[in-house]
Amino acid sequence: MFKIIEKEELAKEVTKFVIHAPDIAKKAKAGQFVVLVIDDKGERIPLTLADWDSSAGTITLIFQKVGFTTKKLGALNAGDSIVHILGPLGHPTPVEDLGEVYCIGGGVGIAEVYPVSRAFKAAGNRVIGIIGSRNKDLIILEDKMREICDELFITTDDGSYGTKGLVLDVLKELFGSIEKSTHTKYPGLVYAIGPVPMMKAVADFTRESHIKTLVSLNPIMVDATGMCGACRCSVGGKTVFGCVDGPDFDGHLVDFEELKTRLRLFREQEGRVLNQQ
Ligand SMILES: Cc1cc2nc3c(=O)[nH]c(=O)nc-3n(C[C@H](O)[C@H](O)[C@H](O)COP(=O)(O)OP(=O)(O)OC[C@H]3O[C@@H](n4cnc5c(N)ncnc54)[C@H](O)[C@@H]3O)c2cc1C
Ligand code: FES
């Protein structure tokens, strides 16, 4: 059993849990995730390791309540326990000193881009953060991102905070000024995590500039051990499994249309289960 030590509502429908999981905390690396099962009858859902503290023996998960399991999870409180948490899973993000790295997070992807941004900063990079959401109330971890980013840009779709527009608009503007500048180093990497259309748009844009781009994919997962095939994606014309080959992949090679279609596969069943709640 894994005890919830702390619970915080970060935004409407976005919850943070700090959970006692010392073995996972000891091994966690940026970009990895866990699979959890709430109780004996629960399904398995993947969540990114948003943070961890090996000395306290805790991990932090931040999740958006979108369906049956995440809503049930969000109803738990500090002091409650989760029956199974498996991890850390997936390959850590390949972090190295690349000079300058752009870390982009959209929606709850802000929680997921935070540990990756921190790792790139610790490796000696200049880190430019670009985080965005639908509105001001959904911007999370701003202070934490500010602490580690050399520059942080915020966007909201409705203009209620930061720049009105999309994270891609900021990226385009920044790249425009880099091209004109004589002293700024071209970015070594763009890393993007968030809704599929956002990751696709970023990758389509950086492909033209030949800037290496990693995206963290979020296919539906079941076993998360490479056995069931639920998380199958196409990258560069090859079949890969998000759980064991990812979750990070070369954004220029990902078949995002297929990912979108596969994420919709169980919409009807997901809706039915939610309505029975
Ligand atoms: C490696 C990985 C890491 C993830 N990390 C996080 C995280 O840190 N925080 C977080 O909030 N979510 C994260 N997700 C997504 C999370 O696993 C899903 O939101 C969750 O499984 C939905 O379960 P549910 O029963 O609540 O909703 P469901 O009833 O299964 O689905 C409800 C809605 O959410 C959509 N959905 C279902 N699964 C996914 C998915 N994998 N990605 C995007 N949309 C989905 C469905 O299409 C549907 O519209 C991650 C996914 C992966 C693969
Ligand atoms: S979730 Fe089953 S193979 Fe990846």
Topology record:
Layout: E1 2-11, E2 14-20, H1 22-27, E3 33-37, E4 45-48, E5 51-53, E6 58-64, H2 68-74, E7 81-82, E8 84-89, E9 100-106, H3 109-122, E10 126-133, H4 142-148, E11 151-156, E12 163-164, H5 167-180, E13 189-193, H6 196-209, E14 213-216, E15 232-235, E16 238-241, H7 242-245, E17 248-250, H8 256-263, H9 267-276
Parallel strand pairs: 9-10, 9-13, 10-11, 11-12, 13-14
Antiparallel strand pairs: 1-2, 1-7, 2-6, 3-4, 3-8, 5-6, 14-17, 15-16
Helix pairs in contact: 5-6
The structure holds flavin-adenine dinucleotide (FAD) and FE2/S2 (inorganic) cluster (FES).
FE2/S2 (inorganic) cluster is lined by residues 221-224, 226-231, 241-243.
What does it look like?
By secondary structure, the protein is α/β, with parallel strands linked by helices. It contains 9 helices and 17 strands. Helix 5 packs parallel to helix 6 (196-209). Bound molecules: flavin-adenine dinucleotide (FAD) and FE2/S2 (inorganic) cluster (FES). Flavin-adenine dinucleotide is lined by residues 33, 45-48, 62-64, 66-70, 108, 111-112, 218-221, 242, 247, 263-264, 267, 270.
